[in-house]
Amino acid sequence: MPSGLKNVVKLAASDGTVFALRSNGTIRCWTVGYTSSTQRIEKLKKVTELAAGPSYVVGRTTNGELVNASFDDPGPKSPKGITDVVALYTDGLGVQVALRDASGDTKPVIKKQPAPVATIEGKKVTLSVTASGSPRLTYQWRHLGKAISGATSSSLVLDPVKSTSAGDYDVVVTNYLGKTTSKKAKLTVAPLPKVKNLSSSRLVLKPGDALKLQVTATGAGTLKFQWYYRGVAIVGAKSATLEINSLTEAEAGAYWVAVTNDNGTKHSAPFFVLIPPAETEVVAWTFNPHETGFSAPTIKERVLQVAAGTHRALALKADGTLVSWGDAEKFAKPPSGLSNVVAIAAAANAYIALLGDGTVRQWGVATNEYGKLPAAPADLSDVVAIATGGDHFLALRSNGTVVAWGPKDNAAASVPSGLKNVVAIAANREGSYALKSDGSVVGWGNSGVSPWLLKARKIAAGSSAAVIVQRDGEVTEVGGSAWEFGILEDVTKIAVFGYSWMALEGDGELHTSGDISVPSHANSPYDFALTNDYAVVVRDATLDLRPAITKQPSHQTAKEGEAVSFWVGAEGGTAALSYQWRKDGVNIPGANGSSLDLAEITPADAGNYSGCREQSTWFRDQPGWETHCYAAGRYLEHLGAAAAPRFRFDNDLERRGDRHGHFVLSVVPQR
After folding, report:
1. Among 124, 300, 467, 475, whose Cα sits 20 to 30 Å from the Cα of 216?
2. Region 113-131: what's the mean pLDDT?
C-alpha cells in the first residue's frame, strides 16, 4: 500500500490490483506481485463512485457520467452518453453495469428543424437538426424515405453534392422512450453540364501521328469549352474537339476538357495519349551477383514504361497489360487480368497502376516501420497521375487536387489543407511533392522543400531525394546532398536507391552515380527504374540498324585428329550482337562467339554446321528476333564413314530453299 495514503472513502479490488477512491475525487492504485503503470488511472478527477475490473477501473463523476481508465492498454470502454448514474458494478472480467436515475428521462423533441437548401452540383452541403431528450439520443438521416448508411449524427454532410442527391431529407431521433421524425427539408441541386467522351480514353500513337479528341456536352445556358494538357489550359482550344496535326513524344500525357454552363464547370473524364518510340527494347541487369531472375524477358510489343520494386520489375505494354518478372516466390505479382493500364509506379514492395478510366489498382504492402499499407480510397476517380514513396501513394485528379493514403502516422500521406491547382506530383520514401500551375512547389512530410522554390516546371523524386527543375532549366536538389543532381540540366526523371542514382536529361542523355555501370546496349533510354539490386531501362530502338556480314565462314575438309576453326565477320548495327553455332540443326552448348574451334576432330564431328547471329532488337517490317545465318556459298557433305569420302557440291543454297546456310565439315579418316 502506498505510504501516506489517507482520506479514502471507498476501496475496490480485482486481479491483484487495489483501487482507493479519495475524498477529493482522485484514485490511487497499487498492484500485488507485478508492476504496471498507474498514470492513466491516477489522472482521473471528480470521481464519486468506482468499480474495478482486471487492470482497469470505471468511475462515476460528479455530473453522473462514466469515465474509464486502465494500465498500459486501452481496456474496456463504457458507452458514451450515459448520464445520471447512481451505482456501478463490474464482474471483474470486463462486464460493466450502471444503474441510472431515469426519473427525469424524456422522449426526443426536435428543437430546430433541418432547413431546405438550394445548391449547385459539386458543392458541399450540411443539413443539421437540434433535438433534446434523455438519455442519449441516436439519429438516422433519410433521403426520399430511405435510410442513408452511416448518417447517424445530428448533422449530415454531402460533399460533393451530386445531381442524384436532390430530394427530400428528414431525420429520425430516437431514445429508449420513443422516436421523433423531423420535418422534410428539400435539397435542390442545379446540375452542371453533362459531358461524354466520344474518343477513346486510351490512345497509343506514334510520333508524327495526328490526334483528335472529341466530347459531347449538354446543359442549361450557353456551353463553353476549354481543353487542358497536364493541368495547363491549351491556348485557343475552346471547342468540343481538340486536334493536333503531328504529335511529338513531348505531347504525351493526360488531356481533358472543362465544360462551363450557367451553373458552373464540369470536367470530362481524362484522355490518356501515350506516345512511346516506334520500337522499344527492355534491358535489365543486376548489381548483386547473388540475385537472379532480373534479366528482362522477351517483349515483342512496344513498352510504354518500366517500374521496379524490391523483388519484382514491371513493364507496361502498348496494349495496356503488364509484364512482370523477378523473384517468383514473392507476393507482389500484378492482379490477374489487369488491363487498360496507362501508368505504373513502384517502390519497395508497393505497386500501383493507373487505368484508362481514371481509377487506380494497387497491390503489395509497405515494408517499413509504418506497418501495413491501407487500400486506395474506394471512390477515387478522375485520376491523371500517380506516384508512390514505398509506404504511401499519391494520386493527382483532373480538378488539380491531390489524394494521398498510407499509414496514419506517415506525415507524407497527409495532404496540406487547401492544396489545389496542382499539375504534377512526385514522392519519395519520406516526402511528397506537388507542382502547382503558378510554378510553386509544395512539399509535405520530410520533403525538404523551401518556400522560395518558385517558377518550377518539372519535379521528380525517388528514394530519399528529389529534384526541382526551374523554368530556366536550373536543377535544384532537395531532401539530400549526396546525389549531385545540381550539375545536370533539365532533368526529366530520376531514380534513387541509397547512394546510387540514375538521372535522365532533356536531351536524352542518361547519367548515373559512379557505382552503376550501364550496359552499352542500354543506350537511348526512354524510361528507367532502379532498386538496390537491379536496374531496368526501356530504350528507344527506332533507329537501330541491322548489322552486315563482312566475312562468311567457309566449308572445311580435315583429317581425323586435326583442329578446325570456323569464323564469321560482322559489323555495323546499333544493338548488341550474340552468336550461336549449330551442328545438324542443334545448338552447340557454349559456342557463342564469332568463331567455332574444334580440337582433335573425330568422324563424329562430321556434319552440317551453321552459325547464326541474333540481334536483340526489333524492326517494323519483321517483328521478332532478327536471326541471320551465315551461308558459305557452297557446302561440302561427308557421305562416308570409314570408307573413302565422297563429295557433293551445291552453289545455289537460296534457290534450293536451304535458308539455314549449312556449311559441312567432312572428316577424312587417317590412313
Report:
1. 124
2. 95
Q: Are 476 and 468 in contact (CB under 8 A)?
A: yes
- DSSP one-letter code for 522: G
Residue 535 contacts residue 308 (beta carbons within 8 Å): yes
Owner of C-alpha cell 506537388: 434
**Cα angle at 386 between 478 and 505, to 5 degrees?**
50
CB atoms within 10 A of CB 21: 23
Name the helix (H) or strand (E) containing 42.
helix 39-42
**Residue type, position 336, single letter:** S
C-alpha cell at 221: 445556358
Expressed in angstroms, the distance from the first to the final Cα of the chain is 113
Task: Quickly state the pLDDT bin for 291 (edges 50, 70, 90).
Answer: low
Which one, of 616, 645, 640, lies nearest residue 628 by Cα? Answer: 616
Q: Are 611 and 577 in contact (CB under 8 A)?
A: no
SS3 category, 613: strand
Residue length of the chain: 671
pLDDT tens digits, one per residue of 129-164: 999 988 889 999 999 999 999 999 999 999 889 989
Nearest of 605, 610, 568, 569 to residue 587 by alpha carbon: 610
| 3-class SS shares of the chain: helix, strand, coil, % to 5 | 5, 45, 50
pLDDT digits (tens, 9 = 90+) for 457-510: 888 888 778 888 887 777 777 765 556 776 788 888 888 887 788 888 888 888
Please give the Cα distance from 318 to 197 (Å, whole number): 21
Q: Report yes or no on whether pTM surpasses 0.85.
A: no
